Structures are given as C-alpha cells and as structure tokens.
Amino acid sequence: MATTLSPLPTLEVALDPEHPQAEVITADEWETWFTQWGQQMALEGSPIGAYELSLKLTTDGAIAALNHQFRQLDQPTDVLSFAALETDFPQIDELLTTEPLYLGDIIISLDTAARQAAEAGHSLRWETAWLAAHGFLHLLGWDHPDDPSLVAMLDKQSELLAAAGLKSEKVG
C-alpha cells in the first residue's frame, strides 16, 4: 500500500497477510512517525523536499532468506535495512525535480520482534517502532561498528521515538 506524506511523500508499507500480528501499527501511524522522524533528522538531498522508503513487516523465514542472501548469515534477524543512497546509482537530476528521493527499504521480522518484546517486557508495538527507527537511521547512513557509535545510534533512536510520542510500553 502506498501512502503520501511530507517530507516523506511515499511510504510503502507491505504487511505479510499470513502474519497474525501484521497490523500491530496502522499505515497512518507509520506515516506520522516517519514524517516526524524525517523532519527531526532534517533530511537533505531532495530538491523538492520529497523522500520515499519502503517498509515490510514479515516473518522469520522471509527475513532469514534475505539475511542469508545479502549478509551470508543463515538465520533470522530483527531488522534489515537496504540504503539506496549507499549504492553507486546515478541520480537523474531532472527526475529529482519531480520525484521523491528514494532512501531504501526496511524489513522487520514480527516473529523476532515479538520474542524480543516479550524478553524485554514491553509491547510488540513499541519494539516494532524501535526497530523501524533503527532501520531508518541505517537508511540515513548511521552505523554501529563499535560501542560508542552503537550508543550514539541507540540514543538517537530513543530521541526519534520520544519525538513521535512513543514511550516504552511495559507489559505484564
């Protein structure tokens, strides 16, 4: 499903229809959050201030296949990000004057997210938003090759969630 927002005018949210928790967060909520996060991160690069990304909520099996294909790790993971801006793909300046700048794809395993949420004692909704914020930062070039950069990234994730009005939702 494609939706329009600003400064991220196109957000494609693909929900796995087979997954019982695929609608833990509505498309409208995703729109609002990514818009707020884009504004908070002061996105640059699009001459028209328009950005696009894709979000897929899926299963452990589907994300494990991607993890194996792209990272040579034969196991599921919680979130994968494929940043379009990290590839050597020439941008056509004329196209950028009429189309959003594509940031990339975020894929989240709801199976892994549910396990992590249960282990941490908070809701699947909060865990999924946390993982989406993590993936979003990766699309913008953030990485965590060492402890100081991981701490900085986790702090920024917390800021993004707080700006969207999301607080850790403890359960049980």
UniProtKB/TrEMBL annotation:
Domain of life per record: Bacteria
GO terms under cellular component: cytoplasm
List of residues binding Zn(2+): H134, H138, H144
Keyword Nuclease: yes
Cofactor note: Binds 1 zinc ion.
Subcellular localization, as worded in the UniProt entry: Cytoplasm
Enzyme class at the top of the EC tree: hydrolase
Pfam families reported in the protein's UniProt record: YbeY (PF02130)
EC number(s) given by UniProt: 3.1.-.-
InterPro entries cross-referenced by the UniProt entry: MetalPrtase_cat_dom_sf_prd, YbeY, YbeY_CS
GO molecular function: metalloendopeptidase activity; RNA endonuclease activity; zinc ion binding
Known role: Single strand-specific metallo-endoribonuclease involved in late-stage 70S ribosome quality control and in maturation of the 3' terminus of the 16S rRNA.
HAMAP family: Endoribonucl_YbeY (MF_00009)
UniProt record similarity statement: Belongs to the endoribonuclease YbeY family.
Full protein name: Endoribonuclease YbeY
